[in-house]
Amino acid sequence: MMKLYYDETMNPRKVCAVARYLDSPVDFIRVDLGKGQNKTPDFLALNPNAKVPVLQTGNDVLWESNAIMCRLAQIAGSDLWPADDRQVEVVRWLFWDSQHFSRHGGSLYFEHIIRRKFGLGEPDAKAVDEAIGFMRRYFAVLDAHLQQQDFIVASKLSLADFAVGVTLPYADTAHIPLNDFPAVRRWHDRLCALPGWLDPFPVERAAA
């Protein structure tokens, strides 16, 4: 049995969604960030960065959400992490997402959701305006790309979709301008039909 450490935040969301989609045999272990459980000696021994998610398989420990998604797909023998030429394309979009799309979507997520969740005050208006400007720029890139295909890489579902789409379930509460980009909205509607996309976290926590 693998152990997947998470909290109900953005980066663990995509890993949990992949685990749910693949029906991976993982034991979900919640790490309460609000209570500082990510800073205990036991957790820091797993991830010295004090962040979730973390995947533990026996004595092997893996952190960083994109790497964990790849490992889960490998273990499942899933084409979400392709073994052919598409793999380079998946890597390209993973980097693009981390440097551009989810980077700025994550800023809006922080300002509108995390600040409230952890009592960090009101959103920083300057940070919000800057993030929205960048989001619109990169939304346009993604929207043009998705006008020609159903999913990001070769019109076939891959880990790139799970990574790039991770902020979009928060679009309303994080004020992410999803509805202004119809091809991206249609793509996200396809993701919403996947098992686990809208409810990736364990049921007992989602209902709490």
Describe what you observe in this structure.
The chain has 208 residues and is α+β, with helices and mostly antiparallel strands. The chain folds into 2 domains: 2-80 and 201-206, Glutaredoxin (3-Layer(aba) Sandwich); 86-192, Glutathione S-transferase Yfyf (Class Pi), Chain A, domain 2. It has helices spanning 10-22, 41-46, 65-76, 86-117, 125-146, 159-164, 171-174, 182-192, 203-206; strands at 2-6, 26-30, 54-57, 60-63. Helix 1 (10-22) packs parallel to helix 3, helix 4 (86-117) runs antiparallel to helix 5 (125-146) and helix 5 (125-146) packs across helix 8. The two termini are 25 Å apart. The mean pLDDT is 95.
Task: State the gist of this model.
Helix content is 53%, strand content 9%. Helix 1 packs parallel to helix 3, helix 4 (86-117) runs antiparallel to helix 5 and helix 5 packs across helix 8 (182-192). The model has no long low-confidence stretch (mean pLDDT 95).
Instruction: Report on the biggest sheet.
Output: 4 strands, mixed
Helix content: 40-55%
Strand sequence of the main sheet, in spatial order?
A: 2-1-3-4
Average pLDDT level: 95
Pfam family, one: GST_N
InterPro entries: Glutathione-S-Trfase_C-like, Glutathione-S-Trfase_C_sf, Glutathione_S-Trfase, Glutathione_S-Trfase_N, GST_C, Thioredoxin-like_sf
Protein name: Glutathione S-transferase family protein
Family: Belongs to the GST superfamily.
